[in-house]
Amino acid sequence: MQNKKKFKDIILSGNEALARGAYEAGVNVAAGYPGTPSSEILEYIKRFDEVDAQWSVNEKVAFEVAYGASIGGARSLYVSKHVGINVAMDPLMVSAYTGISAGFVIVTCDDPGVHSSQNEQDNRRIASFAKMPLIEPSSPFEAKELIKKAFDISEKYQTPVLFRMTTRICHSKENIILSKRIEKQKPPFDIPMKQYVMVPANSYPRHLYLEKRILRIKTFSEKTKLNFIENGKGITGFITSGVSYLYIKENYPDAPILKLGMSYPFPEKLALKFAKQVKNIIVVEELEPFIEEQMKMLAIKHKAKDPSYRVGELKSEFIPKIIQGQKKKEKKRTGKKPLFCAGCPHRPVFYVLKQLKVTVAGDIGCYALAAMPPLSSLHTCLCMGAGISAFEGIRRGRKEQPLVGVLGDSTFVHSGITGLINAAYNKQTGVIIILDNSTTAMTGCQPNPSTGITLKGEKTKKLSLEKIAEVSGADEVIVVDPFKIKELKKHITESLSNKKLTVIITRSPCKFIDKTTKGHVDYNIDKCKKCQVCLQIDCPAISKTAEGFIDIDSELCSGCGLCVEVCSFKALTKK
Amino acid sequence: MMKNNVTSIIFYGIGGQGVLTAAEICALAAMYDGFAVKKSEVHGMAQRGGSVESHVRFGDIVYSPITPYAQADYLICCHNAEYGRFKGYLKKTGTDLFEFLNKGLLIVPKKIFINIYLIGVLSVYTEISEQSWIRAIKQTIKSQFVEDNIKWFYEGRKGIV
Ligand SMILES: Cc1ncc(C[n+]2csc(CCOP(=O)(O)OP(=O)(O)O)c2C)c(N)n1
């Protein structure tokens, strides 16, 4: 536990602390794909010359790189957000069978409360599904310490270890004490084929081995210091893991607690021992009833949260209500919704798509914001890559519907290319727009293969989006500046009516990449007819006044000129 | 039951206003004075001009990274349109520093200085030392803007007396 007045060193976020801990643990290779709330882990680790760190093309690739590095003898780290694990699921499941060589830790950053995600799945279930040990820190301080333990456990039991963070831990900061890096000796290079070649003849015996191994790890789970009882006072005790532990401490600092830093395999004997020490047990955990189900299997009498609390993030003030068995009262999300930045190159594209009244099969990225009113011009957003493949499916399901598929540059490289090949191969036609803002903006502007820059900030081979679209089978590839809206409109309209598979690349950098302003916009109130068309582009620099006129915030305005384009009365002019 | 020696502050406003920077300065300053500190913030989607909030808590031992309901000692609102979002979070004995937002907006030359002005106001209320505030500003703000920021920090401090 973090204690008082000891540290004047440094405060780090959970992500930074985890990265620092992995560094101190002698990690040699780290791979991942950006995603909130995980991105800062690799962004922090990149500073260490000793660590070969990369943004991979997607999570599956990242997983395989990190896994391979472990076989190669390097302590390695995989990092993604919770849904990234879904993309890496194929190698993940089988890696539990093969086991590993040098320590291999899989970091999943879950997002209870869906602060910035498409769902709020609880990846603790991945650990029990894949049969690999699960470590859950409660705070940044613990993230740094436990990641070291995770590497040791991985090596001791020759298994990948799942390390689960949540948004609150990733993005909260606290005092951290730094230690020195300990360099690890590489194990001898040895690849027993029976272990690493997962063909049926080998997989079956490996499954037998996996079942035995998880039992051995269970024995470890009973005695490791990662799981401990805080004796405390009173007859009511809590079983908990992750950030929930802190919420209990906030409310009942002296209560008896069984704190699980390693919640899978579940330490049954320890739970039984705890049950003897207290009269009532209350399980407190965020999202899924993961610990609760273990308690049910052991038939230990306990109380747990009402199922209504399985949705959303826990808060400190919920704890007394959970104890009383109350139902969760859902509150409306308050506050201002996010919107495209002033000067964002996505805005003109969605303005045009709205004018053309087409249905838009969308994807995940900043551009998903186009689904919000008043733009309201993105109609689906399922998962990365679906902007092309779900587009293809909708076309097949309803041929007559005017439809466009939209996705960003990073998403296209992540998993859009396969969809494009599929569409071409299966003779699909239609219009796909790649919003090329030269960055992975939504998650904090990470580089990707189409930017020609690596995680470490080095120049590298630059993937040409137009060439890859062409060889994937697009009949036509058009590159256009999205701020030239007449041209953009013309291209989309034409492509919608011909029988080709067209890829339109709208190319203009994100405002976070290129901060230069392109002049200023002047507002002539005398010419303004209060038509409010300029408000329909939803620019944060334009606001409505009480009299129905508008006000332009010159500090925010980037001079992109879209409002000038849409004003029919010349009330707005560019200087 | 509740720990009383923890000071909890909620900074809130709109993405791009420097709400997170203000909270960072406060967290660092508390750390320099030897406190245990927790700060929590929001990233990702919320940073695109939507509402943002950041909690800073410091004391001898801090547990929850976010301020529990009705436990905040200070509320710092950086944007008029956001006012009221955290009303219920203020302690009975807590102080809402909202009035200083509009006072500050009248005198800062650019809106980007409002965060540092409000930090100046806050600095009068908390037990964090002046030198730690200054050190934290120097640590957080890009060097070419430090001088201006320190100036508006002191304007905020003056605003109180
Ligand atoms: C499987 C998966 N991995 C990562 C993410 C996190 N994520 C959301 S959008 C996005 C990419 C955004 O980049 P881009 O497509 O270029 O669009 P931009 O935000 O730049 O407009 C990422 C990585 C996710 N939602 N799902």
Gyration radius of chain A (Cα, Å) is 26 Å
Q: What count of helical segments of chain A does DSSP give?
A: 20
CATH architecture of chain B: 3-Layer(aba) Sandwich
Terminal CA distance of chain A reads: 58 Å
CATH topology (level 3) name of chain B: Pyruvate-ferredoxin Oxidoreductase, domain 3
Question: Helices, strands, pairings?
Answer:
The complex is a heterodimer of chains A (575) and B (161).
Chain A: E1 10-13, H1 14-24, E2 29-32, H2 40-45, E3 52-55, H3 59-71, E4 76-81, H4 82-87, H5 89-98, E5 104-110, H6 124-130, E6 134-135, H7 140-157, E7 161-166, H8 167-170, E8 172-176, H9 193-196, H10 200-223, E9 227-230, E10 236-241, H11 244-251, E11 257-260, E12 262-264, H12 268-277, E13 280-284, H13 290-297, E14 303-304, H14 319-323, H15 346-355, E15 359-361, H16 386-397, E16 403-408, H17 409-425, E17 430-436, H18 465-472, E18 476-480, H19 485-497, E19 501-507, E20 521-523, E21 542-544, E22 550-552, H20 562-566, E23 572-574
Parallel strand pairs in A: 2-3, 2-4, 4-5, 5-7, 6-7, 10-11, 10-13, 13-14, 15-16, 16-17, 17-19, 18-19
Antiparallel strand pairs in A: 1-8, 6-12, 9-11, 20-23, 21-22
Chain B: E1 7-14, H1 19-32, E2 36-40, E3 51-59, E4 72-77, E5 90-96, H2 99-107, H3 114-125, H4 130-140, H5 143-160
Parallel strand pairs in B: 1-4, 4-5
Antiparallel strand pairs in B: 1-3, 2-3
Helix pairs in contact in B: 1-3, 1-4, 2-3, 3-5
Bound molecules: thiamine diphosphate.
